[in-house]
User: What shape does this take?
Amino acid sequence: MAEKKVKANPTKEFFVNMLVRDILLKQAIIELIDNSIDGARKIKGNNDFEGLSIEVNFSNQKFSIKDNCGGIPLDVAENYAFRFGRPRSKKAEEAETTGIFGIGMKRALFKLGNFFTIKSKTKTTEFEIELDVEKWVVDDSANWDFEIASYKENMNNDISETGTFIEVTRLHDEIANELATTSFENEVIEHVQRRVGLDIAHGLSIIVNGKNLVGNNVALIDNTEIQSIKETYEDNGVNVKILAGIAPREGSKYKPENAGWYIYCNGRLVIAADRTSLTTWKDMENKSSGVTFHNDYAGFRGIVYFTSKYPDRLPWNTTKTGLDETSLLYLRAREKMIEIFKIVKNILDEIKKNTRDNDDGVEEKISNMSGVELTIENVEAIKDNREISIKKIVANPNPNVTITYKKPKKEADQLKELLNASSYKEVGEKTFEYYIDAEC
Amino acid sequence: MPGSDQTINYQIRPSKSIERKILCELVKEIQILEGNRDLRYIGLGAKYFTDFLLIHNEFGVTDMISIESEISRQVRYEFNKPLKCIQMRYGSTNDILPQISGFAEKTNVIWLDYDDVFSEYMLYDIETICRNIDTGSMFFISCNYSFKGENQSKKMETFKERIGNFFDEKIEKKMYTNKNIPFVIRRIMNTQISRIIEKRNILDPNDKVEYLQLLFLTYKDGAPMLTIGGILVNQALKEKISKSNLNEKYKYISSQEDIFNIDIPKLTNKEIQIILKNIPVSKSEYETRKDEFYGITYDEIEKFEKIYRYYPYYAEGQFNT
Assistant: This one.
């Protein structure tokens, strides 16, 4: 009897139409920026990215990204960069990069449109690829390769000329519409400023539609009176640093929406301001431990840095924009985060209690403290520490307290006029000063 | 609220004294089984530091941390601190325990001798401890277990208020009597310990740990008090302990629900001497030689026999300063 087999091989449509549903447009753009930054990390091991830039431009007609971050070597293009999935033979990277699954760049390009061009130049090689996605899909043969339109080898290019240029045209309709809005542009900018803020702080210039991005990194108070809590350890080839503490005020108070945990994998922020049971908080999903977030904890910031030369060991999901919640490595870190959270929560509770019971200026003192922006160097400079105590805070010996009371509007208005005050607050202050002056 | 060190002189509480010596003996036995690892002691020294002195003198431990919540009386504690090697940490146990580092580097002996009745915050301390200590490390908590209320319903209510989220609806109301509350506490504590340990084992399958209860004591120290705790073990240490026959050797060791009650009979020194000269004595032997015991009951003899090795002998003396 002739042998029969069941077909189980994937189709091109699956990759082009299905996989793209798992990522948002914003994430697709991030993916391409991540690739450029990986290039930067490979050529500049020391994290000094001065002179390197990534330019992203988009409209309802086309999308492009251009960098001068070293380019893709021809052999990498031939053997790895465009493969669907990562061949088993690929080894650990020399730098802390993001490429793991061998899916990101293709998925991002398919998400955007139907025609793309890639030009890349390294010190010794150059190549150009053009792909008409619709034609490639229609070709039902087993051939999945992208044709290299042209290439050069054994070149002697100057490092400053190296880099990659990608352009996508024939954008999908819904993508074109979204790319044309300013709200989307703002969203991308804000997201990138947070996500790769560490790299921007190291001199990498990222320009989106002509706008120069500014890194947006978490800051913590770390001085002789209030220290950040820090724990460092290694777990299965992954370096883990957990920091937590009290943030400096943003203006006169805290923005509660910025409070919570921030988690980085190889320098990319994958979780921002988490206040759920994904980290250490109590919520509907997990009621067994921790506390529910409320505004008393608006000053809390916790930051976890996972770094490794084996990016596949990091606890991120396939889009690298979230956590793999089942990762044991992450769950082990979370146990430590829970204990560290308790330390900071307790001091925040104490500060609150102090303000309520005998407002001796501790909170006022803290509100004037500045923070340390958590760039890689600053994080390194903070020592491992678990101790923090309200006792170390030397408050102003003559602190200010807040007095509030309610009085009839008619009388208050009368005083307001008499005192020539512009607000009720001022009425309160002036009458207080008057009493001191007259009676004390 | 003033700590109990202001109302009770720790040095002359006989039950505490017995308890301390029992604990110390237990640590010594475990040390022998485990081999000589460095010890660290964490306790609530109050201003007498009696447990600290005992542990230091017995084992030469120099890594000692005393947690003291009364920050306002810091000067007094520093003055009374009897040994340079005791590190004072000011704050509640909930504040300080998570701030302590280096749990994995030594065998920790932690005795949290609380003044309070069993409460929620103690379970948070247990959480921190179980998450951090290494196998071979031991922890014990002592607390008051008299909950207000003239009947079971009222007692259950006070208990519920005290332990908040940890209240277990499955525990029947009839368990809330003075006699049975220690078992309720044990159950709730064990649930909390297992919750943390199970998680630890999932996250680190190569280093499976287990909790082994060693002590379950009750005694009266003004109020009814209990001490419960044990050790974290791995398979190897668990086997060593079970082969060692410690359970046989020391009647106070309890791995299950048997309570060892420290009940000190009121005896004069002369009575004590006659008992010591005659134990062990069986009930029938006692009955035949009853006259030789001058009215000391067999019950008193039995109670004394349980604790005589740890019994504190007080004498009045003059201490010139």
User: Anything to note?
Assistant: The longest strand of chain A covers residues 113-121. Chain A has a mean pLDDT of 89. Residues 391 and 432 of chain A are 31 Å apart (CA to CA).
